[in-house]
Amino acid sequence: MSKKTFYIHEVAEATGKHENTIRRYIKRGLIPEPKKEWNGWRVFSKQDIERIKELTGQDDRKH
Fold first, then answer.
1. What is the Cα 58 distance to its own chain's centre?
2. Where are the domains of the chain?
3. DSSP calls for the chain
4. Would you say residue 63 has pLDDT above 50?
5. How many Å is the Cα radius of gyration of the chain?
6. Are 12 and 53 in contact (CB under 8 A)?
7. In the prediction, which pLDDT does 20 show?
């Protein structure tokens, strides 16, 4: 079964970007604000990860 949501540290690892860089992308509107859990932690989707990869030229689908 594939994981459906990811925490920011997992997104950072998957994209090779620092957590603060991802937060900056959100603040600047480059990616939409992800959903938040009851405790305020952001949860990202696979689509969010793909969007970050597209922004940074890491789009796997191009290869």
1. 13
2. 1-42
3. -----B-HHHHHHHHT--HHHHHHHHHTTSSPPPEE-TTS-EEB-HHHHHHHHHHTT--GGG-
4. no
5. 11
6. no
7. 97
